[in-house]
Each structure stands twice: as C-alpha cells, then as structure tokens.
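ok so I'm stuck.
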Amino acid sequence: KIYTCSPPHLAKIRNVSKSGMMVETDMPLDADQRLLVSLTNGNIMTAEVRWATNARVGVRLFSPLSVLQFTYGDLSQLV
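replied:
not stuck anymore, here's the structure
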C-alpha cells in the first residue's frame, strides 16, 4: 500500500533496487510528492515520487532497501 495525506491505495511493486522502486497504482501522484510505502512484511519506507506515467510511478527511497531482505524476508532467522 502507499500512503499520502489521503486514504491508502493498493500498489504493486514492479521493480525494486537499493534506492528505489517502480510501483503500479491507481492513485494519482505527481513528481516530488512524498509518500509512505507499506510492504507486506510490515516495513514502512519513506519515499519521494521521481516520475509518474499513467499508473506507473518511480519512487526514490529515503533509506536504502536491502534487496535480499525484501526478497527473502528476515534473514537473521537463517543464521
């Protein structure tokens, strides 16, 4: 889900990197708009819209994202 000052909207993450992601959502967003991205694992990431085209939005994350943790969850359980 993604949050701004309005109610949350569902979003699908289409691609992810350490510093950002591309999401698909029906929420209208504009460049430079700040938002929160709530991941299914419970983590909430602060982000800024870099670009928006139709339903696809590129966001820059304010904190680096561990792609391994994003993909596989809490890795500390494996040690």
